[in-house]
Amino acid sequence: DFCLSRGLGDVYKRQVFGGKGLPNGYRPEKNEFISWLSGKPSLQWLIIRLYKPEGKRQLPRGTWEKVEMCFLMDGVQIPSKTMKLETNHIAESHKEGIDTILSEIMREME
User: How far is the C-alpha of 102 from the C-alpha of 2, rounded, in Å?
Assistant: First the structure.
């Protein structure tokens, strides 16, 4: 359901979490959204794994809002203020699936 190539990872980091090299007020066009097909809990766990600072209890302020702006869930933009809900109740199956994908990506990058 989900594939993260190095190219997509670079685009993702640049557009979603940093905006480096992008003009102020930049808003992605519809075709620049990342389409997510694996459900909300899997996306939540991916974001937590990638962006929660080590030893911290929470993600940096504004992270969920950026996700909602730049991702499509099943082809539809994610409603505002919904991504951070229920992140304490992500099923182990969602966590295991994302952790497996991240491990595979890390092995390929070595």
Answer: 11
